[in-house]
Design a protein that fits this description.
alpha+beta, 7-stranded antiparallel beta sheet
Length: about 140
């Protein structure tokens, strides 16, 4: 098949992928409770009523984002199917919390199975924005 050009962010098995991380000046507990709160969920899923964050639970937000939790490790990791309206197939989204300091937590969003380089670029901006917003909202408290 000859040499195919390697496209940035593309993997053979997982389509396009993107990883964005940021260290926030908050505790691990604070980071986790924010992500699981209504304000936090609004940032990365949208408006959902009474969402239970547990493996096997599905969601569909008012904004049309839908998916299903696959792995839930409190204060550590979330892995889920995540799709925007109009996506043919869902992506895999992983959120990890890493902390080696009581008042610092690195929040990492990693998304794979994206269909296109443009989607990858769009999602990179999206998760960067989510992290900026998370910084703002957790600082305010």
């Amino acid at each position: 098949m000859g040499h195919s050009e390697k496209i940035v962010g593309r993997t053979a098995s997982a389509g396009f992928q993107i990883g964005v991380r940021r260290t926030l000046p908050i505790s691990l507990e604070r980071a986790w409770s924010f992500l699981a709160s209504a304000e936090g969920l609004r940032l990365w899923i949208g408006s959902v009523d009474n969402l239970t964050i547990a493996a096997g639970e599905t969601f569909h937000s008012a904004e049309g984002i839908r998916g299903e939790f696959r792995v839930v490790k409190p204060r550590q990791q979330l892995r889920l199917k995540w799709a925007k309206p109009g996506w043919e197939k869902p992506s895999t989204l992983q959120i990890r919390l890493i902390s080696s300091h009581p008042e610092k937590t690195t929040v990492s969003f990693h998304q794979e199975n994206l269909d296109h380089a443009a989607t990858r670029e769009q999602m990179k901006l999206h998760w960067e924005e989510v992290l900026s917003e998370m910084l703002k909202q957790t600082r305010a408290h």
